[in-house]
Each structure stands twice: as C-alpha cells, then as structure tokens.
What does this fold into?
Amino acid sequence: MTTTVPALGTLTAEGSTLQAVLLDMDGTLVDTEGFWWDVEVDVFASLGHALDESWRHVVVGGPMTRSAGFLIEATGADITLDELAVLLNDRFEDRIAHRLPLMPGAARLLGELASHEIPTALVSASHRRIIDRVLTSIGAHHFTLTVAGDEVERTKPFPDPYLLAATSLRVDPARCAVVEDTATGVAAAEAAGCRVVAVPSVAPIAPAARRTVVTSLEEVDLPFLQGLMTDNR
It folds into this structure.
C-alpha cells in the first residue's frame, strides 16, 4: 500500500533547533551502490544484453521503476518492468546476504544520534523487502522509523518520502538534516525543504544553497548537523 503526504508548509517549528536527521541507505550508510550496478549487469547479461558503463550514472540513486525502465528501453530487453524488478531484488538480496559493508563513519554517526535521542529516519528508494534485510546489518534500533520507495506514490527525486518521514516524526522539514549520496536523493530532500549534507558516492555533487558537500561521513557528527540549522546560506 502506498501513502500520501501533506503539502509543504503544514508543519511549523520555533527557533533553529535540529529536530530530526533523515538518512538515505544505499551508498550513504551502506556501501551498496556498486552492488546494484553489478546486479543489473549480471541480470541483463543473463537476458543476453551488455550494459554500457556510462549508464551507471543514469541509474544510480534512482527508484527501481526509473532505473529498470531506463535499462529495458536502452537495451531493448524482452522483459516487463515488474518481471525485472523481481529479478533485481532477488539477486540483490542474495548479494547482500554474503557481505554488507557500512560506509566509513556510519556506525559512529548512528550511535551518536541514538545516544543523544535525536529522532532519526531511514529514507530509501529501495523496496521494503530490501530495507528490512539491510536493517539486520545496520541495526533497526538506530531508527525511529523507516520509509521505503514502494510505500509512497512518488519516490525520489520527488519530496514525498522526506515529507512523509517529517510528518510521521511530527517535525518541520526545514529543521531536518538529510544525508544523501546522489543527486536524485539531494533533489528530493531539497524539494521537501530540508537542509542537506551530500556525501557523493558515484557522481559528483556541487555545493549549493542549503546544501553542504563532504567527502565522508567521518566529517559528520551531531554538532556539525546542529550547525546547519543556523547556517543562513
């Protein structure tokens, strides 16, 4: 079942306090963006098609419907979107069952947020079945709630997943810090009105208003995130 979210501006907050931290999953907390590409390459090879390496930047960070749809159109593979989604999710689940590395600084940051009782949400374009599997490695206890890509009518780059997370936490999106690794995720968070920390994983992301770019989560801690709320850029 999908969920709708309220329009922007339905929540308000006083002062400049950090109210919540919302984090992407693939490529942000877990080093899996490369896994998705490897799975896509393997699945399409089994269908008799080779993927062009340049397409990797097109599909990274996007929802399954967009990335899989693009690859079907680009290769001309004789498979439906629903059939391909099943193959990709099945192969990805098998892949992460063997190895699931966390990004540098992820465990430390999640532990710090938990110890200070900062409301924290995992907001991913991945499907619920994938999120639940990954949470066994990350630790579900780190998150107040999680939002999956197949639980909203429009996933990233639309703001709906982040608006749903903020609404569920009863916080103002403008007082939320979002941590993302792709331009697609950054676009979703910024459209929701959040402050964004970009940690690029595959493709570069330029700094911009209300957006701070770092090279690693090791540069991000609670004081850093709190400081974003008073940054008037």
